[in-house]
Design brief:
This protein has 143 residues and is α+β, with helices and mostly antiparallel strands. Helix content is 34%, strand content 12%. The chain has two domains: 77 residues, Orthogonal Bundle (Arc Repressor Mutant, subunit A), CATH 1.10.10; 65 residues, Dna Ligase, domain 1 (2-Layer Sandwich). It is built from five helices and five strands, in the order ααααβββββα. The chain starts with a helix and ends in a 9-residue tail after the last helix.
Length: 143
Amino acid sequence: MAEQRSQRMTRQRKIILEELRKLKTHPTADELYDAVRERLPRISLGTVYRNLDVLQENGEVLKLESAGSQKRFDGDIRPHYHVRCVRCGRVGDVENEVADLDVSGVSAPGFTITGGTVEFYGVCDICRNQEKASRPDGPQGRQ
C-alpha cells in the first residue's frame, strides 16, 4: 500500500516534472530545486531528490549519470543522445539521429550485456567563446 502511495502523481511531483520539462539544460537536482522553489517555496531539497528518484523509476524522466559528474535530469524521455562539455559539464541534446547502439556482439567476462549508453563530449559555445576572449590575440588583444 505504501508503494502505491509513493508512485501516485502528487502535486509536488507534478510541479517538479513540469519544471524539469520546461528546462532544456539537463539540470542537477539542486538546479531544479531552485526552479521548483519559485512555485513551491517551502519544498525541501530532499523532497526534490526523492521525487526525481520516483519519476525516474516510473520512466517519466531520465537520470544522466557520468563518472565524475553530478547527476543531471532530462524531462525528454524519447530515445536520444547527449553531449557534455569537457570544461564546464554543461549537457545538451544531440539533435541529429544516431544509429541505435547494437550490443549483440558485445561481451564481457562475468556479465550479461543488456544495453548501453553513448555520451558525446566536446566544448560548449560558452566555454569556447570565453577561451577566445581570453587569448592574447583574441578580441581584447587586438587593439
